[in-house]
Design brief:
Layout lengths: L8 H16 L15 H8 L3 H21 L8 H21 L7 H17 L6 H29 L13 E5 L5 E5 L22 E3 L8 E3 L5
Antiparallel strand pairs: 1-2, 3-4
Helix pairs in contact: 3-5, 3-6, 4-5
Length: 228
């Protein structure tokens, strides 16, 4: 149905492309990200510096070492195939995340499940887990938990219950007006407007037909079509 607040298909498609490109390389327009693998290098660089990735990665590395140690033992030889079957769901989840929106914030739970599975599977696949293997796994989990608790207590002490808001550096903006006189902030030398005054939009999504549906912001917006 043709409601006055209906968003044009082209704008929805553009928004979808922007979300995908944002997850791969924040700040660059879709034309520079989608359709090639050039974003992969900068994505990997950001990935290795993100605590949301490093901590689950520590669990994964500990689990792999534990698995190799147990495979080399004559008394305990965990089944590789059983281990891979138990890991399959989290591996497929990571693959889906990578090919859709590979920003760490969209896969925090998946990363933790994957790292925990790698660490715990060598303990549950064999018929009996050794005390040394169980102690190593418990020490790794306790170390990660202690680190998180320490970081949390330190933030609580310094921030005093306030909610931090990390907005970064604001780009230089210019005010553009639509046909109805509505002012919209648009970046001049950047793509992402970031945290800026209402209303703001990337340059390629500015539409001169945008207008208020009523007399206040609470009533929303619409894009004026020929039939309105």
């Amino acid at each position: 149905m043709n409601f006055d607040w209906t968003v044009p298909y082209e704008l929805v498609q553009r928004e979808k492309d922007w979300v995908l490109s944002w997850a791969r390389n924040l700040g660059l327009p879709p034309e520079m990200v989608l359709g090639s693998w050039a974003w992969l290098g900068s994505w990997l660089t950001r990935l290795w510096h993100d605590p949301r990735v490093i901590k689950p990665l520590a669990l994964m590395v500990a689990g792999l070492l534990l698995f190799l140690i147990r495979r080399s033992s004559r008394c305990e030889r965990p089944s590789l195939w059983k281990w891979l079957v138990l890991m399959a769901p989290s591996v497929f989840s990571l693959a889906f995340w990578f090919f859709t929106a590979p920003a760490p914030r969209f896969a925090e739970a998946t990363l933790w499940i994957f790292g925990t599975n790698v660490l715990v599977c060598p303990l549950i696949v064999p018929a009996q887990a050794s005390k040394l293997a169980s102690a190593i796994a418990a020490a790794v989990i306790l170390g990660v938990l202690s680190y998180d608790v320490g970081v949390g207590l330190n933030r609580l002490r310094h921030e005093g219950g306030k909610l931090p808001n990390f907005v970064g550096v604001r780009p230089f903006m210019t005010l553009r007006f639509t046909r109805s006189g509505l002012g919209v902030w648009v970046p001049v030398n950047d793509y992402n407007p970031g945290d800026w005054e209402l209303l703001s939009t990337p340059p390629d999504r500015f539409d001169s037909r945008l207008e208020l549906r009523g007399s206040t912001l609470r009533q929303g917006f619409r894009i004026r079509n020929r039939g309105l």
